[in-house]
Amino acid sequence: MSLPEIEPAELAPELGKRDWCLLDVREDWERDVVQIEGSLNIPLGTLQSRIDEVPADRPVAVLCHGGMRSAQAAAFLIHSGRSGIYNVTGGIDRWSTDVDPELPRY
Q1: pTM of the predicted model, to two decimals?
Q2: CATH classification at residue 73
Q3: 64 among known catalytic residues
Q4: 52: domain range?
């Protein structure tokens, strides 16, 4: 299965125009280093038990550090019957190089 993906530079301007949910599946310690304001944090390990917190009525862009955990989370959400799910290519690391170079990298 090929996951729908979205580039950080493509998503960033859309966050202000469309009612996207930016789902951050990184651990709390990672979000302590850097996060995108307004994102919803549900670490990957808790996503199955917290799936009801993910909006089903708007597009969801899933983000992690480099794109691997977010791909797992996106696949899980799609397999669970959700639509409008996108993996953010390259994660927050790529976001910090392509969208906001002021963000700390780790």
Answers
A1: 0.95
A2: 3.40.250.10
A3: yes
A4: 5-98
